[in-house]
Write a structure and sequence with these properties.
425 residues, mainly beta, Neuraminidase
């Protein structure tokens, strides 16, 4: 009973509440990789306008051509939100979703030709065949999965991460022609400049031995094992096809959709408006949240290399600051994050600002902090962070989603509210 209680407390610490314990400050690999100073000129005051409230578990927002908003909620619902604050009943046709821990219904992205074809893409965790959709208590993930041996875990079918495509009906009330495109990722979706989907996915610990399931080790894992099962990025054709230049097509033991690997839980992603590169924010363990620039075939280190430590709450013997994997923060062949945070901020939604409403923000990167309870503004010089500003600190609310709207304003989920940031005139 004592072990189970500690494990449940650990999951709550990771997914639900701020984590007080943190790793000691690690040494950066280069100047400016962490702890950037405040900008020389702080942001001018701005308005925070509430559009809709009561959006429990809100995860992503998309801007429909008719001026309405389409949102996802982690529990498995999509809803239409109107500018006047009306929130619709759940849309019909959304496939069954299993919500457990950090799994659920997540990102939503409109096709570039949505105005004509009404096509959208979304990510979700699907229950196994024969299991009804619904929410499961946190302890089931631990007692039924994490506490078992690898051999036992691989016999369990708890569900599957999926990226799917659908058509939104003309009346905005249901999804039609739903089709799964790929398995293995359920976090953020972006469309690369080549037109393919880039889908981020979290570490799938249940398929291999990792430090965070209690199996401590200092040996580097098999590369193909990490390519398949650690968090990473899938590259998928918008029709579900496999791009012919995906980097691991020549490796029989690696999923053909794998584009990059070695992340832990990349809950924010954005395409750089100048370079076209995919940037992601990745949840570290205890400490070590990162920003990474993702390129084909690259290794980002997890769970062998990280700037964080294992969660103190998971150490049943009371130890603190237990190292992850090799204990190294850097390793040959592993990409360095361009920026990291210790202590953790819990980064999520992410967008580059390219609009005209806030000229002083043009080219800045914005990231939501959930347990950190603020909006991060990063000033960039090329691919380096030169200044960091914390906004909305006084609101003391988790920020999940951050997107720039077609009107040039920023839209965020502030707690359970959809709000718009506009300049003060």
């Amino acid at each position: 009973m004592r072990t189970t209680t500690r494990l449940v407390a650990a999951l709550l610490a990771v997914f639900m509440i701020p984590v007080a314990a943190q790793t000691p400050e690690p040494a950066p690999a280069f100047p400016g990789q962490t702890d950037a100073p405040p900008p020389a000129r702080p942001s001018a005051p701005f308005n925070v306008e509430t559009i809709a409230t009561g959006l429990t578990g809100a995860w992503a927002v998309a801007f429909l051509p008719d001026g309405n908003y389409l949102i996802t909620q982690n529990g498995g619902t999509m809803r239409l939100v109107k500018p006047n604050g009306f929130v619709s009943a759940p849309l019909a046709g959304v496939p069954g979703v299993k919500t457990i821990g950090a799994h659920g219904l997540h990102d939503l992205l409109l096709d570039p030709d949505f105005a004509r074809n009404r096509t959208l893409y979304f990510t979700h965790f699907a229950p196994p065949p024969g299991e009804a959709p619904g929410a499961w208590p946190l302890h089931f993930l631990y007692e039924d999965v994490w506490t078992k041996s690898l051999a036992e875990r691989r016999l369990l079918n708890i569900g599957m991460e999926k990226v799917a495509r659908a058509r939104l009906s003309e009346d905005n009330q249901r999804l039609e022609n739903v089709r799964d495109l790929a398995d293995g990722a359920e976090r953020r979706i972006q469309i690369g400049r080549d037109g393919n989907l880039l889908v981020t996915g979290a570490d799938r610990f249940r398929f291999y031995d990792s430090d965070l399931d209690g199996n401590e080790r200092n040996a580097v894992l098999d590369p193909d094992e990490r390519r398949n099962f650690t968090g990473g990025v899938l590259r998928v054709g918008r029709d579900g096809s496999i791009p012919k230049d995906n980097p691991f097509l020549g490796r029989a033991n690696v999923s053909p959709w794998v584009y990059a690997f070695g992340l832990k839980d990349p809950e924010g992603a954005a395409i750089h408006p100048v370079t076209g590169d995919l940037w992601v924010v990745d949840h570290g363990p205890q400490g070590g949240d990162e920003i990474n620039i993702v390129r084909a075939g690259r290794d980002f280190g997890w769970p062998d290399v990280t700037y964080g430590r294992q969660y103190d709450a998971r150490q049943t013997d009371g130890r603190k600051n237990v190292k992850v994997g090799t204990g190294n923060t850097s390793m040959k062949g592993v990409e360095e994050p361009i920026y990291y945070w210790v202590p953790s901020i819990g980064p999520s939604g992410m967008t580059f600002y390219t609009g005209d409403q806030f000229p002083e923000w043009k080219g800045n990167l914005f990231i939501g902090a959930m347990p950190g309870q603020h909006l991060v503004r990063l000033v960039l010089n090329g691919d380096r962070v030169v200044a960091e500003e914390k906004l909305l600190v006084d609101r003391k609310q988790r920020i999940r989603e951050v997107r720039q709207g077609p009107d040039g304003n920023l839209y965020i989920f502030l707690g359970t509210d959809l709000v718009r940031l506009t300049p003060k005139k």
